[in-house]
Amino acid sequence: MKQCEVKGCSNVARNNGHNKRGKLCETHHRRKYPRNAVYYHRAREAHVLRLYGIGKQEYRSILKKQSNNCSICGNGLDKPYIDHCHTSGKVRGVLCNACNWGLGHFKEDLDLLAAAASYLINSRLKEVG
């Protein structure tokens, strides 16, 4: 029986001609790659291309247009998140995690976002006055 090269466990996939991993079990193989920055960025970019139907050049062009900053807050993008319309599926731009999360929680509802902005403005005026 094959054993994992990392821990010696026996959870190694059988080599049926499709297994290119060698003697690594699934658990240790999956943990190996997130630590490899080059692999991570290539895999992320490939995921983005498939998910949003845009090419590498278009993705990089969006990032370049935005100077690698978030479209909403203007902060630098450590990990860019593609913002897209959930109705049409079209890409709108690239956001930081916080802004992407915020839009998602407001369900892209303009009335709800306007109400939240109004609330913040009114509460600021009450604090000062």
UniProtKB/TrEMBL annotation:
InterPro entries: Endonuclease_7, Endonuclease_7_sf, His-Me_finger_sf. Pfam families: Endonuclease_7. Signal peptide: none annotated. This is Recombination endonuclease VII. It comes from marine sediment metagenome.
